[in-house]
Amino acid sequence: MTENINKALKFLQQTYDNSAYFEDHPIEKEYRYQHTLRVSHIAETLAEKENLDKDIVVIGALLHDISYAKGFKTEQEHKNHGRTSAKMVSSFLGELDLTSQQIDEILLGIACHVDGDPMRDGSLTTNALTISDSDNLDRFDIYRVIENMNYNGFFEKSVKEKIDFLEEKIARKALLLEVEEEFVTKTSKQMWRDRISKHQEIYADLLTQLKSGYLFDQDR
Predict the structure, then answer these.
(1) Nearest-CA neighbor of 56 among 11, 120, 12, 108?
(2) At the N or C end, where does the chain have fewer CB atoms within 10 A?
(3) Cα 50–55–60 angle (5° rounding)?
């Protein structure tokens, strides 16, 4: 880990620890921090495999959601959290041993990680786009399977409702695989395919188990 990345991690930790909002919402703080660490790990992996600028990609991943420390009062504020994060870290990045080009790519990557819109002329670089790729890949790790099931009240559903839920998830596989084209590198595309396949495998195995009991009971 470079010195710049170490400093970015400490800046993130200090910002979260000094957040009045997170002081009142400790569970959300822990969730956001762990998400950020996972995204940063993905970013580091992509940077190494694709020979990208690790400082740009990992620092961008570490700071992409730092605005959550402020809390959001409206849906619009949440939608703009990437741009708010970029504003919050701009001065800090100037203190690191980075070129102006590196800083620009980090800020663009953070600002655009929600909607991909740089809001100015010029295209986003592979380094900058990998920040959002890393964030999107974390949304489809194994943890999110359990999180999504819990969010949708899976464990309070009847067996038939659970079966319907799982069948709907499995039916989305083709649509989700099409999203692969939105990822910028060969490695991120492969990681996306692997994660979708793992999700589908978990849902399919669970569906088989539930159906075996449900159908057995229906046959009696």
Answers:
(1) 108
(2) C
(3) 95
Residue with tokens 């980090």: 106
DSSP category for residue 124: P
Residue 43 contacts residue 56 (beta carbons within 8 Å): no
Sign of CA dihedral 87, 2, 31, 152: positive
**What does R_g of the chain's alpha carbons equal in angstroms?**
20
- Residue pLDDT, tens place only, 133-142: 999 999 998 8
Name the residue type at position 5: I
Question: How far is CA 166 from each of CA 35, 146, 153, rounded to the nearest angstrom?
Answer: 25, 12, 12
Q: The tokens of 33 are what?
A: 């921090």
Report the pLDDT value the prediction gives residue 197, as an integer from 0 to 100: 92
Q: What is the pTM for the complete model shown?
A: 0.90
Containing H/E element for 90?
A: helix 81-93
